Amino acid sequence: MQLILTGIDRRDNLLKRLHKYSGGEVTKNWNGKDIPVIVGNNHGCDHIQIECRSQNIPYIYIDHGYFNRDFHMRWARFCVSNYHCTDWRPSDRKIPKMKEYREGNDIVILPPADKVSFIYNAHKWLDETIEQIRQYSKRKIIVKRKSDGALVNYIKNAHCVVSFGSVADIEASLYGVPVIVSDYSPAIPISNKLEDIENLTYPNREPWLRSLAASEWHESEMDQCWERLKGQLDGIY
User: Fold this and answer.
1) In terms of domains, do 126 and 198 share one?
2) Do residues 137 and 200 share a domain?
3) What gap in Å lies between CA 169 and CA 151, rounded to an integer?
């Protein structure tokens, strides 16, 4: 395993904290074969993900936490071979308050950011998704991009949110808006299907949120974090 330095202190310090328990090599350059541990999508980490996905090499992706977010990354989420958590398991971790599910009229689409589109080859996702929606619904469609400002201003009258995969999926659900997401989203367990966009269900969100909370770790919890990651890499690493 190789932990890939970025030259950014807050990111590299996080890698070094994990390295205390995970072992492996701390390096600036991935050798193209060992399991890489990367932080974020910049500094070559985007190309590492693309190569790993192409060669079916597992990798550990680290980014800001879902509920505890700070500039220095004292909290962070740790995901295996995905931009978001896909390791769903019971947890008793504290979660944010949720609003009751509510109804609205608009379909709000959250397309992937440019870097995510590049990594996951999702450049056509928005156009293809709109075409699919039009097979099932005539509702007003609003496209909200990452740079467009606060999500809450776009979902006040939302029937649902349709998203490729973003932390905003969690925010929408906490606000009480049903979601329809791809396999790269952190909201997979509570997602509706696109063909059911006019017949939405309203899943229990608590177990899913607790599982998400268990995928982010404080800087003092790297021993527990590594134990969970090892479980996901069992038989691979």
Assistant:
1) yes
2) yes
3) 10
Answer for the pair 181, 163: CB distance below 8 angstroms, yes or no: yes
Which pLDDT score, from 0 to 100, does residue 122 have? 95
Tell me: do 12 and 40 sit in the same domain: yes
Considering the domain architecture, whether residues 164 and 206 belong to the same structural domain is answered as yes
Cβ(142)–Cβ(154) below 8 Å:
yes
pLDDT (0 to 100) of residue 92: 87
Looking at residue 41, what is its pLDDT? 92
For 165, the domain range is: 106-210
What are the per-10-residue average pLDDT scores of the chain (237 residues)?
95 96 96 96 94 95 93 94 87 92 96 94 96 97 94 96 96 97 95 97 95 94 94 78
**What region, left, alpha or beta, does residue 156 occupy, with left being phi > 0 and alpha being psi -120 to 50 degrees?**
alpha
List, in sequence order, the alpha helices (H) in the chain.
Answer: 9-22, 45-55, 114-120, 125-133, 167-175, 206-213, 222-232
Q: State the DSSP code for 79.
A: E
206 is a domain residue: yes
pLDDT for residue 100: 97
161: domain CATH number is 3.40.50
d(CA 99, CA 195): 25
One domain for residues 118 and 171: yes
At 201, the amino acid letter reads T
Q: How far apart are CA 76 and CA 74, in angstroms?
A: 7
Residue 22 pLDDT: 95
What is the per-residue pLDDT for 47? 96
100-111: burial string, b at 16+ Cβ within 10 Å, e else: eeeebebbbbbb
